Amino acid sequence: MAKYNDPDELRALADRIDHEKLWTWAGMDHDKMTPEQKDRHMAGVFLRRYASDRGNMLERLKEGAGYMRGMRLERANRGTDQRGCGDGAWHGAINAESDRLRAAGQEWPRMMYVAKTISDEVPRMVLLFQYERERGMPDSYKMCAHDPRPATPLKDNHLRCALGQECRKCPHLAAIDRSERMTPEAKDEAKAWTCATHYLLESKPDVHCEQILFDKSDDAFHERLAQSFAAEYDDGSLDAFR
Hints:
With 242 residues, this protein is mostly helical.
């Protein structure tokens, strides 16, 4: 079994399981798969994801990459981190408390749901700051590889927070960037925690939070989504409002 610690062996195993290359099928064709094909398709997908995560981890270990409190931010198990606190069990515990409070005529525990969201959002923010620093934000957007429409150009793409502030113009983040003692990776993490804390302190207690950092690809996604819904359900009555 030791050979399955090797990412290449894991990918080869995924190819043997999904020998029909079902992962290349367009999403709209998935309903044509047999139950057995669907099982092999998902097994192959998750094996390839695990192989990719493990390969990234091994490469980072070779570079002597640092760990945040002993846990890599890439989160190889796709939960909040390798301790698994961002899984369904946590969500279930919050739902149970919500049911208890509602039955007692009390408000649902919004704060507990926000805490779970933040636990996943901050590591994502760290990686976004790293991506922007190392590569710059993407300059175009497509819904997926099968989308026949041309890519949407993203001119001057940049990160901004849910408070509407461009991250590159934020004085709090600029103060962190001016540090001469912090490594670039440490700055990424410090900026993520600073941004998340600022958002929470400046927001109303009942605010709904899905994500804190955005770029222009998020805007393009929402615009495409709205266009798709409008094309399917609009009977022409909305034309007057355009």
